[in-house]
Amino acid sequence: MMLLLPCGVWLSTGIKAQIPGDQVFGKYIFAAATGESLPYRLFRPVLQGNKTYPLVVFLHGSGERGNDNEKQLSNGVRNFTLPGNQKKYPCFVLAPQCPEGERWVEVDFRAASHHQPDSISAPLQNVMYLILELSGKQPIDPKRIYITGLSMGGFGTWDLICRYPSFFAAAVPVCGGGDTSRAPFLSNTPVWAFHGAKDDIVLPSRSSDMILAIRKAGGHPKLTLYPDANHNSWDAAYSEKKMFRWLFRQVNPE
Predict the structure, then answer these.
(1) Per-residue H/E/C for 88-133
(2) pLDDT tens per residue across span 207-231
(3) CA spacing 20 to 30 A to 41: which of 61, 79, 100, 161?
(4) From the centroid of its chain, how far is CA 14?
(5) On the CB side of 108, how many CA atoms lie within 13 Å of its CA?
């Protein structure tokens, strides 16, 4: 069944009709079974034959929340769609937008630590539903689904891989933090974290503590600390050629 919203966006239980005006990232709204909606943008690579492609899921920071379906493209995510990167690493790129007043993870980002909430947040749960729906309708390789995010999205990245440790082929959390008690679940998850050493919003220790905890659990995660960077470590992180090479080499064995 199709519903016409007042804004003129067609909403259905499946993939939404593209809104004209953006030839790079398609503009859609996901209708969750709960009745909630989630704006999202989707970049499609140039498809060839029966090939399947990786999916990069990008979680934005707190400043890009809302329902304009625009702001989530402000920082970092477009680097995955640059012609040079698409030539080397063709992939789908998914950028959902968290509603205003909500968070990917309902925790204090400025705290020195946190305990993972018992339940996943509604926006992040809808992201998972959306990933599953897209995977069933697009030529996405289920063994190459990657998750990344910055600041609030970095927390969301840690949260998702702790809840679904065998689902994602790799994770790149940028200036985020997770619950170190959940680190044993990540011993087999490829992780490369990035943080600014002078970050005065999210403590750099939020990344380093998670990395150390995973290593103690037997994992082999990577960490890059930019010595002169404050909270904005994402410009550098999403420009790292080595990170791109590393990320797209990862394949989920399950």
Answers:
(1) HCCCEEEEECCCCCCCCCCCCCCCCCCCCCCCCCHHHHHHHHHHHH
(2) 999 999 999 999 999 999 999 999 9
(3) 161
(4) 21
(5) 6
Question: SS3 breakdown of the chain: % helix, strand, coil, rounded to 5?
Answer: 30, 20, 50
* Token pair in block for residue 206: 């939020």
pLDDT over 60 (residue 95): yes
Task: Check: CB of residue 195 under 8 Å from CB of residue 206.
Answer: yes
Q: Residue 183 has which token pair? A: 């680190």
Name beta bridge partners: 38. 30
pLDDT-derived band at 182 (thresholds 50, 70, 90) equals very high
Q: How far is 157 from 149, CA to CA, in rounded Å?
A: 6
